[in-house]
Amino acid sequence: MAKNHRSDRPPAGAPSRTAPGVVLDRLASGPSRASRITHTEHLPPREGRHAVWPDRIRTEVVAAVQAAGIGHPWAHQARAAEHALDGESVVVATGTASGKSLAYLAPVLSALLDGAEAPNGRGATALYLAPTKALAADQCRSVKELSQPLGHSVRPAVYDGDTPFEEREWIRQYANYVLTNPDMLHRGILPSHPRWSSFLKSLKYVVIDECHTYRGVFGSHVAQVLRRLRRLCARYGASPVFLLASATAAEPAVAARRLTGLPVVEVADDASPRGELVFALWEPPLTELHGEKGAPVRRTATAEAADLLTDLTVQGIRSVTFVRSRRGAELISVIAQERLAEVDRSLARRVAAYRGGYLPEERRALERALHSGELLGLAATNALELGVDVSGLDAVVIAGYPGTRASLWQQAGRAGRSGQGALAVLVARDDPLDTFLVHHPEALFARPVESTVLDPDNPYVLAPHLCAAAEEMPLTEEDLALFGPAAEELLPQLEAAKLLRRRTKAWHWTRRERAADLTDIRGEGGRPVQVVEAGTGRLLGTVDAGSAHTSVHEGAVHLHQGMTYLVRSLDLEDSVALVERASPTYTTVARDTTSISVLETDTEIPWGAGRLCYGSVEVTNQVVSFLRRRQITGEVLGETKLDLPPRTLRTRAVWWTVTEDQLDRARISPEILGGALHAAEHASIGMLPLFATCDRWDIGGVSIPLHPDTLLPTVFVYDGHPGGAGFAERAFHTARAWLTATRQAIASCECDAGCPSCIQSPKCGNGNDPLHKRGAVRLLTVLLEGAPEETEGAAGASGGPGTEE
Predict the structure, then answer these.
(1) Would you call 619 helix, strand, or coil by DSSP?
(2) I need a surface site. Which of 166, 319, 469, 585 has the fewest CB within 10 A?
(3) Annotated domain spans of the chain
(4) Are 500 and 508 in contact (CB under 8 A)?
């Protein structure tokens, strides 16, 4: 039940504007609660700096903005609009709720009004790209409200997979501001460009919102989609200006240039006001339970976050709890609803879950309920992280470090968007990185956000887009410079594979199927698996193909809208998982085995007697079993074998080797070598997100006492995407700092023999066996003694894909 209700609190569920420090004091007021706060950061309020709109912004647009209650723009809004009007592509990289939308909307709406007065033709058009459907729908609502005084000159419309077919033709012919996502641009708009010819011919602006999310494989695909868009626009005589927005990005102009392939001006001086932000780091307590190999177990971040969501809702504090997984979002909402029902049954209905995989109508209903205030609390995945205007939120709880500082600040920024003070709480998981961060707050609050890592030249990314471009319009030698230096090398391979055929001076697509279907730009690979209720045939939602083996295998616990199901069967051929209602007292976690072979070593440098390497590898992975864990405590109840086919991945990796002499100096005997390597591998995977814009689930690792390709004890860390995503390369270039932090995280943990806070991994296929904590510390100490000083700085000098230029 909700804890420590005091008499000075408002009635349960009543709206509140309590100061964030007071809210935090209430959350920490119970027995042992205060000791869970390891650090509190106070960000003071900031005054805003006004400017005036450029003269070229239409007076009607200025009047509409003023009618919406905005008398004058902030200085960064006016500056960004000026660049857009000058025909310069620009990225606005200012804080959350700083008005980036208006910075690009003012010039866009002015252009649409100018176009409406054109004597012939359709007039100017604009395209808006969002990483999620929810954000595009939210932006469309905002544009309609803002442009209402402008009449029918502005005709916004959402065009995505949820758009009814009967509306699509109207949008193609008449809408002049089309809001969509990169997936629909890739699969729907570009392959059908003749039907979009009048829109593309008049395309004046392309808005790319939340551009920092386009990283790794997804970002690399989007970069090539944008190059295909630019090529078709040129075919129709247009050269659109790109307007990019990002709340959090390091070197935003560099990242925007890599994404678009164009020079981009940067506007990063935030002139907007900001309310006070109180940011607390929260570590759940140790329990009396013991996990794998007898390791001490902390209370889960899921259980802790559910308590905080419950208490915030009882106080009438409007809040969102961000969770890293779909299952976690469902579980937190269920726990909070049960505890709220014990306080006030009506409150249980004011908390819900929000995640990807829901049906469109379910998502829209939740967005409306949160926007209106009907819902007080929401447990959400990062599907709600990006830009959706949820005015009036007072607090954000983040259940587990979201993988990057960029995402952390993005999620924290969801609260306080109306200018009031806000509270953010990061609840640490039992994980090396989370534990490190709550005890080293400077790693969060004294460091800039990460650089955006993407590699458009990745051949696994580029090849299908060359095919798609050739189907859209025969590919010529003049086009190759647009797609990057790797394009010319790939064409003979695509010809040999009989995907493209050269006729005279152009390459043509040869197949009957659509070239755009060759790739899933989110790197998920394959057809999504449909989750179907066995008894009724009702479609509950979908799971991406890449995670189906681990999330909807036979016997898996599946949560949907607060309901619990057990997976009865998984049909990989038809991509269907049949589920049935159940009430298990446990959750399930898949186990797998992984082997790795070196295909090619690109770079190799000595680390004392050992070596640090970067290159291409082949990884073979197979899910072999699953564990049943008690819901709240995480206690392991049993293991069940599975029979699923292996999967093979060709990707990029960083790896390091040690010699017999180094093992002797580290006092590593053959009996503990495997455990020391395995522990160092786990901890290094957990720490890499501090140095590259990745999540530990984006990467994998393998350690082996005698690897057949290196003939030495070796630890590998690899990108979990075909062709690589830039993360392993970033690890190679920051290896000294990365492995130093890894050693520190293991050594400073208070456990004796290793625990989830230092060397145990939640996704270990070997059940976290063997592991040797002290051996890992000694091994890393000896390895780092030979680390060259210049390795850490190589990232800035390389200039290669996935590094800082």
Answers:
(1) strand
(2) 166
(3) 20-44+274-446, 59-267, 459-517, 527-584, 591-786
(4) yes
**What is the token pair recorded at 387?**
């830009």
From CA 487, how far away is CA 229, in angstroms rounded? 17
Around Cβ 505, how many Cβ atoms within 10 Å?
10
Q: Residues for the chain: how many in total?
A: 805
CATH for the stretch 59-267: 3.40.50.300
d(CA 378, CA 365): 13
Residue 59 CB partners (closer than 8 Å, separation 6+):
none
Q: How far apart are CA 707 and CA 79, in angstroms?
A: 56
Structure confidence by residue, pLDDT tens digits, 366-380: 878 877 888 999 999
Q: Rounded to 5 degrees, what are φ and ψ at 571?
A: -100, 100
Q: What is the pLDDT of residues 220-245, one digit of tens each?
A: 999 999 999 999 999 999 999 999 99
User: Can you tell me whether residue 327 is helix, strand or coil?
Assistant: helix
**Cα 25 to Cα 395: distance, rounded to the nearest angstrom:** 13
| C-alpha–C-alpha distance, residues 719 and 104, integer Å | 35
Q: Which of 724, 737, 656 is nearest to 691 (CA)?
A: 737
The candidate with the shortest Cα–Cα distance to 86, out of 243, 219, 284, is 243
| Residue appearing with tokens 């060397």 | 759
* Distance from C-alpha of 746 to C-alpha of 665, rounded to nearest angstrom: 19
What 3-state class would DSSP assign to 351? Answer: strand
Q: For 548-576, write each residue's pLDDT tens digit.
A: 898 999 999 998 777 889 999 999 999 99
The secondary structure element, H or E, covering residue 235 is helix 216-235
* pLDDT attached to residue 523: 65
Find the angle CA(289)-CA(433)-CA(28) to the nearest 5 degrees. Answer: 60
CA distance 650 to 11: 58
Contact 768, 627 (CB under 8 A): no
Structural tokens at position 673: 């070598």
pLDDT tens digits for range 676-701: 999 999 999 989 888 877 777 789 99
Q: Quick check: 635 and 291 in contact, CB under 8 A?
A: yes
Q: How far apart are CA 593 and CA 432, in angstroms?
A: 22
Paired sense of beta strands 395-399 and 475-476, if any: unpaired
Please state which of the ranges 452-466, 591-605, 614-628 shows the lowest mean pLDDT: 452-466
Comparison of pLDDT for 188 and 373, the residue scoring more: 188
Query: Rounded distance, CA 495 to CA 489, Å?
Result: 11
For Cα atoms 448, 454, 455, give the angle at the middle one, nearest 5 degrees: 145
User: For position 799, what pLDDT does the model report?
Assistant: 25
Distance in angstroms (rounded) separating the CA atoms of residues 13 and 315: 6
Return the C-alpha torsion angle 76, 265, 131, 137, nearest 10. 40
Q: Are 352 and 333 in contact (CB under 8 A)?
A: yes
What is the CB neighbour count within 10 angstroms for residue 593?
14
* Nearest-angstrom CA–CA distance, 178 and 176: 6
pLDDT single digits (tens) 499-532:
999 998 899 999 999 999 988 888 655 678 999 9
Q: What share of the chain is helix, strand, coil (3-state, %, to 5)?
A: 40, 25, 35
User: What pLDDT digit, counting tens, does each position of 477-492 carry?
Assistant: 999 999 999 999 999 9
Coil, helix or strand at residue 486: coil
Residues 417-423: what's their mean pLDDT? 76
pLDDT over threshold 70, residue 4: no
Name the 3-class secondary structure at 40: strand
C-alpha closest to that of 290 among 763, 635, 754:
635
3-state secondary structure of 151: helix
Between CA 429 and CA 56 the distance in angstroms is 51
Q: Single out the residue of 44, 45, 106 nearest to residue 74, CA to CA.
A: 106
Give the β-pairing of 351-354 and 377-380: parallel
Q: What confidence tens digit (pLDDT) does each residue in 286-332 have? A: 887 766 666 677 888 999 999 999 999 999 998 999 998 888 889 99
Is CATH 3.40.50.300 what the domain over 20-44+274-446 is classified as, yes or no?
A: yes
